[in-house]
Design a protein that fits this description.
241 residues; two-stranded parallel sheet; 15% strand; 7-stranded parallel sheet; 2 domains; alpha/beta; 9 strands
């Protein structure tokens, strides 16, 4: 984005099916100062794609294409899933969303590569793709018809971020993907150490991931949590001997 001291955003489109949507998204990215476009197994860039992109041809030219979701997120520190389908209860953490406007107020507190992940036009993101993301956000819409056109959804998210750049703080938090993965690994090991019920383990791990995603803790806070978890695991294992 065309502003200093903000995170680097990457728009990630998972298997987009229509060139027109890709072109319209490229145009919206140019409108609001975004430049990084990641495409996973996209359709061909047809005439409609280039026509809708208008003067955002460079974004299409520089778009990076990947064969898999895992490959596309290797350099991204913080992943944001988008979906119109949300959990009906707080006990189901996978699709428990953060409101778009709350997200836009918080996200500028951090520094890192942030992936905004948008799903397929027909059935969105798979559960396993959402599970790999730190949080899920939802655009407020009518409950009578909540599913939006892909390019429209991307445009609203980018506009919301663009209008929040004025709220940037100098005291930013720093995220590191490798350290974050280590924290989640320690939490998983802790659950195993206390013989947490297997049928509850996956949902609890996702709950912890969503909790950390919403909190957006600092690197110091991450290190403190890792230290507590590491020492707890070590003590539990020692007492079992």
């Amino acid at each position: 984005m065309e502003c200093n001291n903000i995170p680097e955003f990457y728009i990630v489109l998972v298997e987009p099916k229509y060139g027109g949507n890709i072109g319209a998204i490229a145009r919206s990215m140019a409108n609001f100062g975004f430049k990084n476009l990641y495409l996973i197994n996209p359709c061909n860039f047809n005439g409609d794609c280039y026509a809708r992109a208008m003067h955002a041809q460079d974004i299409l030219k520089n778009a990076k294409i990947f064969k898999s979701f895992n490959e596309s997120i290797k350099n991204l520190d913080y992943l944001v899933a988008t979906s119109s389908i949300e959990s009906k209860t707080e006990k189901k953490h996978l699709r428990l969303p953060l409101n778009l406007f709350d997200f836009c107020n918080k996200i500028f507190h951090i520094d890192g590569n942030i992936g905004l992940v948008f799903g397929r036009e027909d059935y969105g993101l798979l559960n396993q793709e959402i599970a790999m993301c730190d949080i899920m956000i939802r655009i407020p819409t009518s409950r009578l018809y909540s599913s939006m056109n892909l390019s429209h959804a991307v445009t609203i998210v980018l506009f919301s971020l663009f209008t929040n750049t004025k709220k940037i703080l100098n005291n930013k938090r720093i995220l590191d993907r490798i350290e974050k993965e280590q924290l989640f690994k320690f939490f998983s090991e802790l659950l195993e150490s206390i013989e947490y019920p297997n049928h509850k383990k996956e949902n609890t791990e996702i709950m912890f991931k969503r909790l950390m995603g919403r909190a957006m803790p600092s690197k110091w806070e991450y290190h403190t949590l890792m230290g507590v978890l590491s020492k707890s695991i070590h003590k539990i294992k020692k007492n079992k001997k």
